[in-house]
Amino acid sequence: MAEPSSEKAAGASAVNPQSQGVEETGQIHRPVGWMYKSFRLGPLRLPYYASPSTQLVLVGLVCFLCPGMFNAVNGLGGGGQVDATVANNSNVALYSTFSVVGFFAGTLVNRLGIKLTLSFGGFGYFIYVASFLSFNHNQNAGFNIFAGALLGVCAGLLWAAQGAIMMSYPSEGSKGRYISWFWMIFNLGAVIGSLIPLGQNIHSSARSVNDGTYIGFMILMFVGAVLAWLLVDARHVRRADGSHVILMKHPTWQSEIFGLWEVFRTDTYIILLFPMFFASNWFYTYQFNGVNSAKFNIRTRALNNTLYWTSQIVGAYIFGYALDISSIRRTVRAKAALAVLFAITMIIWGGGYAWQKTYTRAETSADGYITDDWTTSGYVGPMFLYMFYGFYDAAWQTCVYWYMGSLTNNSRKLANFAGFYKGIQSAGAAIIYRVDALKAPFMDEFAASWALLAGSLLLAAPVIVWKVRDTVPVEDDLRFSDVTVEEVKGVEGGGRGEG
Fold first, then answer.
1. Whether the Cβ atoms of residue 280 and residue 69 lie closer than 8 Å to each other
2. Residue 298: closest CA among 81, 51, 49
3. Residues with Cβ < 8 Å from 435, sequence gap 6 or more?
4. Cβ neighbours of residue 416 under 8 Å, at least 6 residues apart?
5. Pairing between strand 28-29 and 21-22?
6. Bridge partners for 46 per DSSP
7. What is the tally of helices (H) and strands (E) in the chain?
8. What's the rounded Cα separation, in Å, for the pair 402 and 414?
9. DSSP symbols for 385-432
10. What would the pLDDT profile of 177-193 be if each residue is shown by its tens digit?
11. What is the pTM of this model?
12. pLDDT tens-digit profile of 54-83?
């Protein structure tokens, strides 16, 4: 990316008073350069390239093409294979390395930059799907396990970079909307990705997908890995009020490793959110393998998959916009979201309990078991349950990201928070995938999921009630960086409102 002309001779994030910031008249000026010019498309004015919204859309498209397609593959249950064992073992390797790398990934993102980490992360998804294509022909399960372990490393970096962008680029007043925009774009990838096996297997009663399905996913994932290089560096991003993203001007390995320790020293309370992190991917294994893969044939699994991710878009939209209602104080919104999450945990998973009582793993794994089709009598009930599971997942993820974003606006700290989130989340996923590979009863997996979700909300309550503030003073955010107030503010109070 070419740098804007006003910054060519400047320090990494230093301000040129002639080209940006605010003059005494209060007028906002952005730097000179193509990335700060907005354009009209008919009646619409498109945001400038280095705006938070444009950068978020680009990150959303990367995740649309990489982890979005990964979700479409995994949502089929067993990675689209007849037996989920290979996919389970691969995912154990994936989430084991993800849990370790993800926990420290914020440090790597802060040092290496968002473009490299996002692109390298996308490459891992390509290799992961290639391993299932290979397995269709040579049954080399070792390659699947290697690809899973590699993806754990890659995904840890990708999600830490994504989290830092999504939570630190927008202003305080628009974080919920930005999270919902990302989640909708990202899950649209899973929706479209799930249409690939649905279209290719709509007339099939088989229990595994064909080669063309995997090849289609691989092409899209490769495009996503390349797309990451179209992002601009965080130091060039400007909000609508002229304010900058808060980060380190001169990060070093020493400063970022120390920064990880500093987060634990100053924000120890984040540990109370770890159970929410741990629970956030735990239930996927039960839903994908214990419900979708166990009970339905491939075309119905593909349809359920499409409906699941479509419901995520709806959930993200509702919760993201509700969390940004400006007429209600942020502290009140935080508590209300906690109460709503607890309520829908009881309602949706209560319905799931009623459904799970109707079958067992032993029954569905028996020779000669006939899986259900969408033409089977009684399909509508579990279809809607599966849609509500998708809605619930989006609500949970949106709220967790919003809670973290409400604690700080510092990109460096939020990269570490995102790393903690994905690392702890992946540790939970590694454990439950292993439990599923050992053929634990479906009811046990269900009960563990429900208990973790409800219990983690109770443990997180003190942080949500006492640590979320209506606004975080910019001086507090700057304590974790090497920039000054003058270097990050636009208009008076810049970065606190819209943008």
1. no
2. 81
3. 285, 444, 445, 448
4. 106, 107, 110, 259, 260, 263
5. antiparallel
6. 39
7. 19, 4
8. 11
9. HHHHHHHHHHHHHHHHHHHHHHH--BHHHHHHHHHHHHHHHHHHHHHH
10. 999 999 999 888 878 87
11. 0.82
12. 999 999 999 999 998 887 777 665 555 545
Q: Note whether 235 and 169 are within 8 A (CB).
A: no
Q: How many CB atoms lie within 10 A of CB 431?
A: 18
Q: pLDDT of 226-275, one tens digit each?
A: 999 999 988 888 888 888 887 665 566 666 677 777 887 888 999 999 99
- Residue 11: phi and psi, rounded to 5, are -70, 175
Give 42: exposed, middle or buried? Use CB within 10 Å, 0-12, 13-18, 19+.
exposed
* Residue 93 near residue 145, CB atoms below 8 Å: yes
Task: Tokens 């320090």: give the residue.
Answer: 11
The fraction of the chain above a pLDDT of 90, given in percent, is 45
User: 493: how many CB neighbours lie within 10 A of its CB?
Assistant: 13
- Between 19-28, 45-54, 441-450, 474-483, the lowest mean confidence (pLDDT) is in 19-28
> Cβ of 327: how many Cβ atoms within 10 Å?
4
Closest of 343, 320, 319, 323 to residue 331, by C-alpha: 323
- The first and second tokens of residue 409, run together, are 């606006």
- Whether 239 and 171 have beta carbons less than 8 Å apart is answered as yes
Dump pLDDT digits (tens) for 398-410: 999 999 999 998 8
The number of residues in the chain equals: 499
Q: Is 3 exposed, middle or buried (0-12, 13-18, 19+ CB in 10 A)?
A: middle
* Separation between Cα atoms, residue 444 and residue 440, nearest integer Å: 7
